[in-house]
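Why should sequence recovery work at all? Because a backbone constrains its sequence more than one might expect. Tight turns favour small or flexible residues, buried strands favour hydrophobic ones, and helices have their own preferences. The token representation captures these environments compactly. In the example below, the structure is given first.
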């Protein structure tokens, strides 16, 4: 038996061993909590993230919102109660109002290893401005949105819109506030968002 065959067999056994230790759960399926074992892999098995990946833009006069969405695979999540690997939709955004750049996160260098890092300036928030997935057979991308300028992290949806054949894809952006308990006026969060809400973005 030559060295190449031995190496191939060794790598095959290693891969099979890793697969046995890492149960794969389809992130877009109606899975239950019993399937979420330590070091399992919440994987985009059917490539359901694909329609959301790309650059999206909304324009109105001199106002422009640009959102860039990317897919990151097998990201290790050590902060959850059950440490696991998962595929994620990760986004960045830039908003220009009246020709003035309000905020720009498009240049953030995001990798698999820094996704859960804290932001170096807005230290109460994560480095990644938009993060989430398409979960449990939902017909939209369910994300979390870091509104750094308003000082809050809220729910975000990208809902695919019906388009005619040959037309570019479109999504509706929906931002939603969660309930906030405030003990003083100083702790009250602005219900509005830095970027426009309920707008339709077109894939570029």
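From this structural description, the recovered sequence reads:
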């Amino acid at each position: 038996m030559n060295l190449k065959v031995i190496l191939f067999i060794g790598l095959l056994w290693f891969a099979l061993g890793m697969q046995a230790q890492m149960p794969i759960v389809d992130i877009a399926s109606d899975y239950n909590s019993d399937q979420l074992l330590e070091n399992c892999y919440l994987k985009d098995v059917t490539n359901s993230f694909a329609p959301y990946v790309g650059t999206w833009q909304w324009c109105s006069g001199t106002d422009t919102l640009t959102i860039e969405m990317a897919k990151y695979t097998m990201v290790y999540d050590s902060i959850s109660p059950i440490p696991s690997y998962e595929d994620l939709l990760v986004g960045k955004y830039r908003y220009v109002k009246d020709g003035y750049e309000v905020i720009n996160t498009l240049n953030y260098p995001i990798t698999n290893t820094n996704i859960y890092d804290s932001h170096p300036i807005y230290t109460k928030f994560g480095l990644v401005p938009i993060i989430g997935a398409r979960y449990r057979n939902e017909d939209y991308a369910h994300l979390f949105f870091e509104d750094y300028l308003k000082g809050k992290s809220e729910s975000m949806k990208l809902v695919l819109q019906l388009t005619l054949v040959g037309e570019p894809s479109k999504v509706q952006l929906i931002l939603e506030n969660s309930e906030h308990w405030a003990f003083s006026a100083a702790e009250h969060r602005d219900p509005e968002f830095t970027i426009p809400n309920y707008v339709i973005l077109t894939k570029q």
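A few observations help interpret the result. The longest helix spans residues 3-21.
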